[in-house]
Structure formats: C-alpha cells, structure tokens
Specification:
- The structure holds 2 protein chains of 2 kinds.
- By secondary structure, chain A is an alpha/beta fold.
- In chain A, 37% of the residues lie in helices and 16% in strands.
- A 6-stranded parallel β-sheet of chain A has the order 3-2-4-5-7-6, sandwiched between helices. In chain A, strands 11-10-9-12-13-14 form a 6-stranded parallel β-sheet, sandwiched between helices. In chain A, strands 16-15-17-18-20-19 form a 6-stranded parallel β-sheet, with helices on both faces.
- In chain A, helix 3 (51-65) runs parallel beside helix 4 and helix 3 packs across helix 17 (425-435).
- Chain A is globular.
- Chain B has 5 helices and 9 strands, in the order E-H-E-E-H-E-H-E-H-E-E-H-E-E.
- In chain B, strand 2 and strand 3 (52-61) form a beta hairpin.
- The longest helix of chain B is centred in the C-terminal third of the chain and has 14 residues, at 138-151.
- The radius of gyration of chain B is 19 Å and the shape is globular.
- The chains are: A alpha/beta, B alpha+beta.
- The interface between A and B is medium-sized, with 21 and 21 residues.
Chain lengths: 581, 171
C-alpha cells in the first residue's frame, strides 16, 4: 500500500468526512498541514486574525448549518487562544473539531518553543481529546473524533498532532468506523418512560413545554415534532435563550423566553404550572432563579440526551434519556393512541392571558433618543421576508435581541448562552455567512463586546463576506453597569467604555461601509441602507445610555418576584444575593 | 454570610475504563473541576490484553451528588461502566497497608502480639523495627495504625480501597 504523510492523511480524512471549510491560522507546528492544503481544490481555508475568532466562526458555521465546524491552529499560543471558543462550544453543545499542531514527539515535555500541554489544558473543556503519536493511528482517530463531536450531546473534540507525526508516513486506507467500545449515547428513549410521560401529560391541567437548545441540536425534524406536540397538547411553550426558533414566535402558544430576562407570562406560567415538560434544556441557573422557589407545585418530566443533566440541579419526577426529537415523536405516537380527551386548558390559558396583559416587554420612549429595544424592533421589521440569521455578543444587547427579535425557524439565532462569551457574535456571524452565503447575517453587538474580536473585520474583508455588524452603542458595558446600579448603589466601577474608536472610520479603514445612526429619525433609513448596501457594513447605532434590560429576576429571587420596570429597582442587595450574581 | 456544609455519605465506586493515556487525569480532574471529594483512588490494569483498567474510588457527598458523580463519570468517552458498590448490594472491600513500627523490649513484643490479633504479617525486620503487612476494610486498618501509633509508629503506606460485589456474577 502506498504510504502517505500524516498531513496528507488528515486532509484526506477531512474530505472523506465531508469537510469543505476550515477556519485556521498557520504557525510553525502546523506548517506540513498548511503545505498540504496549499491551493487545495476541495478544502477552503478561512484565514482568521486570532485563533479565538476561528473557534467562534466554526461555532457559527456549525450552529447555522447543522454540520460540525473545523478549526486548525498551531501549538502553544495557537491552542491556548482557541480555548475560550472550545469551552463555549462545550457549554452550548456545538460540534467542533479542533486540530492543533504540537511540537515534535521527542520535544514534548522539554518546554520546547511554542509548546503547551494542549491535551492537558483542554481535557476539561472538550467532550474528548487526543494526542496522536503515530500517523498510522491518525485516520481512525479523526473518524472517531467526528463521530464523538456530532453524536449524542454534541461538543468540541481536540486532536493534537505533533509536527513529526504530520511529516512521517504510514499506509493509508479509509477506516471502517468501528463501534467504539465504551461510547454509546442513548438515542432512543425508554418506551416505559414515554408511556408514563403520556399518562402524566394526559392528567395535567396546567402543563407547559419548556424547550432548549437540544431541540435545535436534534435537527429540523425535532422542531417540527415540537410544533405538532404543542398543538396536540394545547400547552403554552417557552424556551431558553439557546432554544429560540425551535418553536415559532408567531404562534399564539408562544410565551417568549423564560428566565432572568424572560417574559412575565413565561416565568409565571412556569411557577404556576402543574406539569413542566422539559425538552432538551437543562434547568440552568439563569432559568431557575432561586432553586427552592422554582416551580414549587409542579411535576417535572425531563428529556435529555445527557443523563448527567437530569437531576443535576432540579429534581425530575420522570427522567427520559434520549434524543429529544425521537422522544417527542414517541410522545406524539403515545398521545395519538390515548382514548380519552386531554383536560380542558381554557382556565389555564385565561390565567396566562392575564399575565400576558402585563405586557412585560414594553418600554417607555422619550424624545429623539433611540431606545435600544426600538433599534432591535426596527431591525426585526426591516428584515421581514428575508432569510435572516442573527448572532449576538453578550450583554444587554443580547437580551434585548432575544426579547424583541422573534424567530420562526431553528438555526437562525446564534448566541453564547452557557459560557456567556463576549467576542462570540461577530466571528460567529462570519462563520454563519460562509455556511449560508445567500442569507442576510446580522451580528447585534454592544460597543464593548464587539471590541473583543474586532480584528476579524479583516477576515470579512478578505473573503468579501457581506456580514452586517449592528452595534448598539451606549458607551457602557451595559449589563455590568445595570448590575452595579441594582446591586452596588450605582458605583459604576470600570464599566464605562472610555476611548471608544470612531467605529465608522474604523469600518472605512477595513474597506467596509460605515453608517452612524444618532437619533430616532435616522433609525429606519439607516437600517434600510445597511441592508441595501452590498458587502460588509458596520452600523454604529447610538442609543439611550442608561437603559436597563427588563423584565428581570434579580439574583437570588423567585420567578414571582420579577422586576418589570425601573421604578421597582432598589439599588441594594444583601450578601446572599450578591454572592449568587 | 458564611459557607454551609452539607450532609454526606461514603460510597465506593468501581469504574472500568479503556486503558489509555490520560484516563486517570481525566477522572481525577473531573472530581476537582466539579468539586467532588476523593477519599481514595486505586487503579490497575485488569484485562489479559492490557486494554481495561479498574478504578476504585471512595468518595463522599449527599446522595444527589453521588448520583451526579456517577452520571458525570459515565459520560466520559473512555468509561465503560460505573458501579456504585455501596448501592448495588453486599460487596467486599479491602485495602492493604504497610506499617513501620520501631521499638525495643516490651513494645516490640506488644507490637507482634497486636499484629497477630489483626493477622498482620511481618515483611521486614531489624533489631529495633518491623514492617507489618495488613489487609482488610478501611476501619480495621485505621484501628491497627492507631494502636501502633501508641507503640512507636514510624510511617505508614496504604493502597486505598478495592472492592467487588459478592456472589458468582460480575456486577
């Protein structure tokens, strides 16, 4: 058999696995791989400006296409710079394959130039990782890595390849993916548990479906099953930040997002429900608020592909391990066979409509200042009828986008939920645009978070990507400032964005179009110009500086203690609550 | 504000894993990363082809946390199976200790007498010292070491616990 180098084996495996786009940055320890992809006809390499950008681009690509994202970086600083994105992908269950170069095997452990213990550093921020010491093992490892990253609960997998392993040769044939001896994620739910769940649903007088990112990870069919299941039960539907789009926001059964900045009706319905059906969500602390007061009078069914999510923070009366799409299909089949009508939910819906009538997302507008919520609402209405993908950074703008931009389809909303990574949104938009060349991809950013990976403007310019970067500029790290106002009597310690660049000039410096929107009169026309302008566009949208994000469940409070508007804010908090922030 | 401690109970977990580089770091790291306790941890290759190791972990925590530890361990790719011996039913647990005791005269005779009661073996001796080898459940070894401390304990080495379920079947 003809022998091939490790680098050639790697590239051949990527092609065999259907990879066409790789996000990366070259360096000493990956030069053999970079030489192999030089002018390669099948692999498009996207040169980033910082390795963290590569990982978030791969996440954006993966989340918007359903395919795994692939990253290629060098040893040492290349690998350590990638770690934030890898951790982000672990927290939000995004399938990534991160290939890191490593110093030659005989140099490992000698503090060689650009050496870092990559497998050691990434052991707890990956789903699995490998150090490959022989090119003969490379093909099987890469195929296994893709299988692990994309199956079960998806996540990032790191493959660390020493430079000599990239150069050395070995016989190559495409591996037959052997059944892994100890990795068997449970996909099909237990039939008995499904029957029990059907019985619990059939008795519920105040049911609610609480959905999460798992529904989106399960694939487009799961979103369809969710719609059918919600229709069959007639129950209200709420979702976590990660699950937005799985259920159409235009449905009357939609209550909006729940949790810390969720709607009043979603949080009240969770609190008063007698049955919570959790579908691919994980009772995160931003969702539950104070645990001992969380949904106290309800039974809970928890469907999750990761057994460790069940009973981690909230006790489930019935845990169902399996793919949420399969579980919902099984629940539907079970409900079809039910020979009695489900309880009448009229009274339940009447209570929900009462909570909805509080209109918790309303905001007060004054004068010519742009309220940030208004900017998002205008962005939403200006993009109707277009195939739009929204990414966000992290902070107030992220919550306003989640509240005021409404999604009717999955894979159109990309945000950093679990890790809350400032600097995620802009590179994620670049990745999404590469995976969806015909979509209108808009990153809603804050003036502070956009600066965390702003160097990637060069990447968008280089690949002529028409991403739109919409900065909600209030000259503050707004969410930090908001917490300081609520918790620390408005002592705004280091949360003012001093020395901001002139964003419009910056855009021009990178060869972008830059637009500044300064008052309410310019808002609609500015957004229209952004959408109509070909190529990348940055919008510096100046908004009211001291707006806060409401509604809000303060730290350490129960769902029923929501703050709906600024008049309810006290400005102090006891130590127990401070410690929970 | 003060940090509150929670009620906890002791569990012995038996974990079979693929024998690969880094597996011990992966498991030990999971315990530190998630704030679980390790009282003892033993590991050794148990297969004929050197592919499988058994790791026995003694841990403690509230029952909810023990369940979470098992689920988290089970999630690791190289982990084949996690058995909570404490929950599974009757099981045998043993640990081995080497106990060095120094003394002369009556102390030396008393050490030998106690060793006999505990069925400890002498594996090394000088004119003024012994090394005893003792196996048994943790509390038996604790008692032996405590008694030797009163006579002239020099140092002690312990393996940590290994355990298996009782009966003819594998767990």
């Amino acid at each position: 058999m003809a022998e091939r180098s490790g680098a050639e084996i790697l590239v051949q495996c990527l092609i065999d696995l259907g990879v066409d786009t790789v996000f990366g940055y070259p360096g000493g320890a990956v030069l053999p791989i970079y030489d192999t992809i030089y002018n390669h006809p099948k692999i498009k390499h996207v040169l980033v400006r910082h390795e963290q950008g590569a990982t978030h681009m791969a996440e954006g690509y993966a989340r918007s296409t359903g395919k795994p994202g692939v990253v290629l970086v060098t040893s040492g600083p290349g690998a350590t710079n990638a770690i934030t994105g890898i951790t982000d992908a672990l927290m939000d269950s995004i399938p990534l394959i991160v290939i890191t170069g490593q110093v030659a095997t005989h140099l490992i452990g000698t503090d060689a130039f650009q050496e870092a213990d990559t497998v050691g550093l990434t052991r707890h921020c990956t789903k699995h990782n490998y150090l490959v010491k022989d090119p003969a093992n490379l093909a099987a490892t890469i195929h296994e890595a893709f299988h692990i990253a994309t199956s079960g609960r998806p996540g990032p997998v790191v493959i660390d390849i020493p430079k000599d392993v990239q150069v050395a040769t070995a016989p190559f044939e495409p591996p037959v993916c052997a059944i892994h001896p100890s990795y068997h994620p449970q996909v099909e739910p237990d039939a008995e548990a499904i029957a029990q769940a059907v019985a619990m649903i059939a008795e519920a007088e105040r049911p609610i479906l609480y959905t999460g990112g798992g529904v989106i990870n399960s694939g487009p069919d799961a979103s369809q099953s969710l719609r059918a299941l919600a229709e069959r039960i007639g129950a209200p539907v709420t979702s976590t930040l990660m699950g937005l789009g799985a259920f159409p926001a235009s449905s009357p059964q939609w209550l909006g997002m729940l949790g810390m900045h969720g709607t009043y009706e979603a949080n009240m319905a969770m609190n008063k429900a007698d049955l919570i059906v959790c579908l691919g969500a994980r009772f995160d602390d931003r969702v539950t608020g104070r645990l001992d007061a969380f949904a106290p009078n309800s039974r809970k069914i928890h469907v999750d592909i990761d057994r460790s999510s069940i009973n981690k923070t909230v006790h489930a009366d019935l845990g169902i391990v399996g793919d949420v799409g399969h579980a919902m299909a099984a629940l539907l089949a079970g409900l079809e066979k039910l020979n009695r009508p489900l309880p009448d939910l009229t009274e339940w819906w009447a209570r929900i409509e009462g909570w909805r009538a509080r209109r918790s997302l309303d905001y007060v507008e004054t004068g010519t200042e742009i309220m940030p919520q208004r900017a998002i609402a205008e962005l939403f209405s200006a993009t109707r009828g277009k195939d739009v993908i929204i990414t966000t950074e992290v902070g107030q703008h992220q919550m306003w986008a989640a509240q005021h931009f409404h999604f009717d389809a999955p894979n159109k909303w990309l945000t950093s939920g679990g890790l809350g990574t400032m600097g995620y949104g802009f590179p994620a938009a670049i990745g999404a645009q590469l995976g969806n060349p015909d979509s209108l991809v808009i990153c809603v950013a804050g003036d502070a978070s956009v600066q965390m990976n702003i160097q990637e403007m060069g990447t968008a310019t280089q690949y002529r990507l028409p991403v739109k970067l919409f900065i909600i500029n209030n000259e503050y790290m707004g969410m930090v400032r908001q917490w300081q106002e609520l918790t620390y009597e408005s002592r705004y310690s280091n949360s003012y964005s001093d020395s901001l660049p002139d964003f419009v000039k910056l855009a021009q410096a990178y060869g972008w179009t830059g637009i500044r929107i300064e008052n309410i009169q310019e808002l609609q026309s500015g957004i229209a110009r952004m959408i109509a302008t070909p190529g990348p566009v940055l919008v510096d949208c100046r908004v009211a500086k001291l707006s806060n994000c409401f509604p809000m469940i303060p730290s350490g409070a129960a769902h029923t203690d929501m703050l709906l508007d600024p008049s309810q804010v006290s400005g102090t908090m006891d130590d127990e609550a401070k410690a929970l922030v | 504000m003060h940090i509150r401690e929670q009620q906890s109970e002791r569990h012995v977990l038996s974990v079979t894993v693929t024998n690969e580089a880094g597996i011990l770091a992966r498991i030990a790291g999971l315990f530190t990363a998630r704030g679980y306790n390790i009282e003892s941890l033993t590991v050794a290759d148990i297969g004929t082809d050197h592919r499988i190791s058994r790791i026995t972990i003694v841990t403690n925590g509230p029952l909810k946390v023990i369940d979470q530890i098992i689920a988290q361990l089970d999630r690791l790719v190289p982990v084949h199976r996690v058995i909570d011996l404490t929950e599974t039913g009757p099981f045998v647990e043993r640990e081995l200790a080497l106990v060095k005791v120094a003394g002369t005269g009556e102390d030396r005779i008393e050490a030998l007498r106690l060793a006999d009661v505990f069925r400890a073996k002498v594996v090394d001796t000088t004119i003024e010292s012994f090394i005893f080898e003792i196996t048994g459940p943790t509390d038996k070894i604790d008692s032996f070491v405590d008694l030797m401390r009163q006579i002239g304990l020099v140092e002690v080495g312990r393996t940590g616990v290994v355990g298996l379920v009782r009966g003819a079947q594998a767990a």
